[in-house]
TrEMBL record:
This is Starvation-inducible DNA-binding protein. Belongs to the Dps family. Pfam families: Ferritin (PF00210). InterPro entries: DPS_DNA-bd, DPS_DNA-bd_CS, Ferritin-like, Ferritin-like_SF, Ferritin_DPS_dom. Keywords: DNA-binding. GO terms for molecular function: DNA binding. Gene3D superfamilies: 1.20.1260.10.
Length: 159
């Protein structure tokens, strides 16, 4: 594949790709876990939470696509297998095995929080190591804010 000539050196795009690949894995695993919650939640609040989880996984489906496309914009291929995702992710595939809404929400909240922390680390690293990577930095900041909103909603429900 021809490398993108976008004002960043190959080393800079490599640093960005090394940050985005685990992020893509995290987002995909969170998407899958949210789908699982949507499919398997049980309890007196089933309908409301089932609909809410659908909203969340729909948002995450778009995020997964955007992160993969950001990699492609930088001239890199996106990892796209479960084996790759499981080797790259910061998240745990396992939940606590309960199918109630509060258990799912606690688990999903922990994952959103972990992604927020990782995004902050990436934004700082870009500022320190990848001069002129404004597009990726802006994208990650916006994505972090999106995860912060979802985390706030989940945290508020759990109070």
């Amino acid at each position: 594949m021809a490398k993108a000539d976008i004002g960043l050196t190959p080393k800079q795009t490599e640093i960005l790709a090394e940050m985005l690949e685990p992020l893509l894995a995290d987002e995909f695993l969170l998407y899958l876990k949210t789908r699982n919650a949507h499919w398997n939640v049980e309890g007196p609040d089933f309908h409301t939470v089932h609909v809410y989880f659908e909203q969340l996984y729909t948002e995450l489906e778009n995020v997964v696509d955007e992160v993969a496309e950001r990699l492609r914009k930088l001239g890199h291929y996106a990892p796209a297998t479960m084996k790759q995702y499981l080797s790259l992710t910061h998240l745990s595939e396992q939940g606590d095995g309960k199918n109630d809404s509060l258990s799912y929400m606690k688990n999903l909240l922990a994952d959103h929080d972990a992604i927020i922390v990782y995004l902050r680390e990436c934004i700082v690293k870009i500022g320190n190591e990848v001069e002129f990577a404004y597009g990726t930095s802006d994208y990650l900041t916006t994505l972090m804010e999106q995860h912060e909103t979802t985390a706030w909603m989940l945290r508020s429900h759990l109070k």
